[in-house]
Design a protein that fits this description.
The structure holds two protein chains of two kinds. By secondary structure, chain A is α/β, with parallel strands linked by helices. Chain A contains eight helices and ten strands. Helices cover about 35% and strands about 25% of the residues of chain A. In chain A, the strands form two sheets. Chain A has a six-stranded mixed sheet with strand order 6-7-8-3-9-10, with helices on both faces. A four-stranded antiparallel sheet of chain A has the order 2-1-4-5. Chain B folds into two domains: about 40 residues; about 220 residues, MetI-like (MetI-like fold), CATH 1.10.3720. The chains are: A alpha/beta, B mainly alpha. The structure holds adenosine-5'-diphosphate and magnesium ion.
């Protein structure tokens, strides 16, 4: 893959001393405690860690849907202040508008951008083809399988042409074959249109397959435990899973995550 | 990318049209038979239940004088007027309650307080204020329908899936877009439920109001007939009220099918 080194080294995301405290009924919950992370332009970063360690909290803060209690959150050098189409989000629960067809779901954000109808149509066609759902443009979400719904959600996020794509366990609810298909789709999209990807998963294997770097978080309070470089060249395919290096990295990360889990149970 | 994962289309919730018809025919036939039995001369219950033939005759007589259309017209007219006013008022109030915290806090205690009071209890006040004419009945219907609809629609507005609102926000939507393109369509199924409940409480409240005093109307017809022990007219009136209710229901369902077909679980 040809990536401009200067662009690669540019910092897309800078998190510095990010702390998040939720005021709950049963006292305060420290969801994040001092998270430092830098993500390069066009980098693919996966985040793994036990549930409740603050992965979604971190993503929501990056999306501008939530605000950190302390610390600095910079995207393109600017502090995040509320949501923006520049930062696309794909949710685990698909979050398609059930009253809109596939076409109108993908077009939703494009209308907000006040693009001319012709341009909207062109983009919808382009991205629906990218996820191979052109036969379902006029279907409603209830007529689609889980995998198809998530592909629509991906197309909807991509159509906004965000430079940063935030994904919160997007394939978590899908069966193994569908998940493998969508991982391949996502890698293909990412290699075609350079975007910085921040991808949360609880599946270590998925993280190693997709990411250039895997961020391992630990819970109570949420912080970054370890960052592992995945030095496996792209394009990666399902065959990549069979290589020795893949297994090695996977086992290494899994051991860390599992020891986190045991630590937490104590 | 594969197109393998086709959507699983669920089978139609109801069977073929003729099966539906069969159910209706059988169910009506059984009830008619029961009615025939309980109203036959030897039965004690015949005092309460006039026979189908007698009821039909009573109906024919009222049709001949044209009186029945007057009763029906007045009752339906009052219901629709009171209901429509209530609907027009309930929409903004319930959406504002769901959308604006101060508005919600102002209205919520009053709605909770009022919903426990049967609307008929307001009749003495209404009569003193508005007399015994048409407006008094419309006001009572308005109170009944307004409360039930505000509560139902408000419930829908606050239950809008937060993930959908988040999804809209990250797609560059402003508050106006979120309100009109997410909150309103997401609440549509609740609006239909509200209309259903509003219409049925309008109808029941009106009949009760007419029973306690009116010049004309289905309730008044029943009340007058009962004074003369004309049980055939009483029963006919009751059946007509039921038919009016079913007609409302069918009309609401007709529009609901068209406007909320996108729902995952479709009501029958
Ligand atoms: N809105 C909220 N209010 C209170 N506590 C919250 C809220 N959201 C998350 N939390 C708490 O913050 C912690 C981190 O949650 P989350 O970011 O969802 O974890 P993860 O996505 O890693 O499973 C958990 O302990 C959770 O209970
Ligand atoms: Mg989560």
């Amino acid at each position: 893959m040809a990536r401009d080194p200067a662009e690669m080294s540019a910092k897309k995301v800078v998190l510095h001393g990010v702390k998040k405290i939720y005021q709950g009924a049963s006292g305060d919950v420290v969801a994040l405690n001092g998270v430092d992370l830098e993500i390069r332009n066009n980098e693919f970063v996966c985040v793994v860690g036990p549930s409740g360690c603050g992965k979604s909290t971190l993503l929501n803060i990056l999306a501008g849907l939530d605000r950190q209690t302390e610390g600095e959150v910079l995207v393109d050098g600017k502090p995040v202040d509320g949501p923006s189409g520049e930062r696309g989000v794909v949710f685990q629960q698909y979050a398609l508008f059930p009253w809109l067809t596939v076409r109108k779901n993908i077009a939703f954000g494009l209308h907000n951008k006040k693009l001319p109808q012709q341009e909207i149509d062109r983009l919808v066609e382009k991205y629906v083809r990218m996820v191979a759902l052109e036969d379902f443009l006029d279907s409603y979400p209830k007529e689609l399988s889980g995998g198809m719904k998530q592909r629509v959600a991906l197309a909807r996020a991509y159509a906004m042409d965000p430079s940063l794509l935030l994904m919160d366990e997007p394939f978590g609810a899908l069966d193994a074959q569908t998940r493998a298909q969508l991982q391949a789709d996502l890698l293909e999209l990412w290699e075609k249109e350079n975007k910085t990807c921040f991808f949360i998963t609880h599946d270590v294997e998925e993280a190693v397959l997709l990411a250039q770097r895997v961020v391992i978080m630990s819970a109570r309070p949420g912080r970054i435990n370890k960052i592992v470089d995945i030095d496996i060249p792209y394009p990666r395919t399902q065959e990549t899973r069979l290589t020795g290096r893949f297994t090695e990295l996977k086992n290494d990360i899994w051991a860390t995550v599992y020891s986190e889990y045991l630590e937490e149970r104590k | 990318m594969s197109k393998k994962d086709r959507a699983a289309k669920s089978p139609a919730p109801q069977g073929a049209a003729w099966v539906n018809l069969l159910y209706v025919v059988v169910s009506v036939a059984v009830v008619m038979l029961l009615w025939h039995i309980v109203s036959s001369p030897g039965m004690k219950s015949a005092k309460v239940f006039a026979s189908p033939a007698a009821v039909l005759k009573a109906f024919a007589a009222k049709v001949r004088t044209g009186k029945i259309w007057e009763h029906l017209g007045y009752s339906v007219g009052r219901v629709l007027t009171g209901f429509s006013l209530a609907f027009v008022a309930a929409l903004p109030v319930s959406f504002l309650m769901g959308w604006y915290e101060p508005f919600r806090r102002f209205f919520q205690p009053w709605i909770s307080f009022l919903k426990c009071i049967p609307p008929l209890a307001f009749i003495p006040l209404v009569i003193v204020g508005a007399g015994v004419g048409e407006s008094a009945k419309v006001i009572v219907i308005f109170i009944a329908a307004f409360l039930v609809m505000v509560i139902t629609i408000y419930g829908g507005v606050v239950n809008v899936d937060n993930t959908l609102i988040k999804a809209a926000r990250v797609l560059d939507s402003n508050d106006r877009t979120i309100f009109f393109k997410v909150v309103v369509p997401a609440s549509t199924p609740y609006i239909f439920t509200a209309v259903r409940l509003g219409l049925s409480s309008s109808l029941t409240t009106l009949i009760a109001a007419e029973l306690t005093g009116a010049q004309v109307g289905l309730g008044q017809m029943i009340q007058e007939a009962s004074n003369y022990f004309n049980m055939d007219v009483v029963l006919m009136g009751i059946i007509l009220i039921g038919l009016v209710g079913i007609t409302f229901e069918k009309i609401v369902t007709f529009f609901e099918r068209r406007l909320t077909a996108w729902q995952e679980i479709r009501q029958k």
